[in-house]
Amino acid sequence: MVFQMSESNQTCLLEFKPAVIKAKQSEADYDAKVMLHLSKKPAQEILAGIRKGHPDSEFGEPRTWRFFFMDECRRRGKQLFTDLGWPTEMNSLYANLHTGGVETLEHNLNNLCHPEDGGWNHSWAVAEHSEPLDSAKPNWKLIKYEMGKIQTNLQKIESLKGLKTADEVKGGGCESPASLRKYAKNSIGFHQEDLDEELKRCKENNIEVNLDSLLCKKCKLFYKGEYDKGVVSNHTCICSTKVLNTSSA
Question: CA triplet 249, 201, 214: central angle to 5 degrees?
Fold first, then answer.
């Protein structure tokens, strides 16, 4: 009778080989050394590291320490936020660093990643992608994000002018220019609503919103309500969105 060892049994035996044991121990020692190193860092340096996405090793090897920074955030949990001076109440508002979207801390802790592993285990995700909302100031990230989306859709509409069939659309695709224009106009409406809501919040709370650095001359007049529709109606810019309601686009 010939005994044939299964692949799983072979793997188990390999784990007992001296070279394998030594390699595993070396890896464990390295991990412990890195975590000890990170445990001594102030909260601001942990925040800076996790926001790099894939921070390089500080020991000189060509590898990333992302997962080490994630584990250090998990280890500190709520204390990391306390040390950063961030609110830890679950109903605290946090703004997304990329879109400016605002959610409660509880929502972010439980929805940014895997819900089954939520809570302070996700402190790294909140730290990487969010920051506390300063309600006394304009939410500039949201304003810029919404304006950028509006501009993209305006440019899309502009590129579709005069086109009648799907074959004429640059890049191909099966949707007609009319459908794509409708989708872009609807998208503009959604982003305009979010932008208007933020500008309204600022106005109601006497928060000054200086759009000068973001707007061109015509659009500054547009937002101030001091414009000639005949001049501005065909002006496609990052902020000329409401004109779309009265234009042929």
Answer: 50
Cβ count near 29 (within 10 Å): 10
Report whether 151 contacts 238 (CB < 8 A): yes
Q: pTM (2 decimals)?
A: 0.77
Quick one: tokens of 162? 């005069």
Q: What is the pLDDT of residues 83-125, one digit of tens each?
A: 999 999 999 999 999 999 999 999 999 886 665 566 899 999 9
Task: Tell me the C-alpha distance between 219 and 227, whole Å.
Answer: 9
What are the residue ranges spanned by the domains of the chain?
7-132, 140-246
Distance between CA 114 and CA 7 in Å, rounded?
33
3-state secondary structure string across the chain: CCCCCCHHHHHHHHCCCHHHHHHHHHHHHHHHHHHHHHHCCCHHHHHHHHCCCCCECCCCCCCECHHHHHHHHHHHCHHHHHHHCCCCCCCCEEEECCCCCEEEHHHHHHHCCCHHHCHHHHHHHHHHHEEECCCCCCCHHHHHHHHHHHHHHHHHHHHHCCCCCHHHCCCCCCCCHHHHHHHHHHHHHHHHHHHHHHHHHHHHCCCCCCCCCCCCHHHHHHHHCCCCHHHHCCCCCCCCHHHHHHCCC
* Residues 166, 176 contacting (CB under 8 angstroms): yes
Single-letter amino acid, residue 214: L
Question: Order of strands across the sheet with 102-104?
Answer: 102-104, 93-96, 130-132
The radius of gyration computed from the CA coordinates of the chain, to the nearest angstrom, equals 26
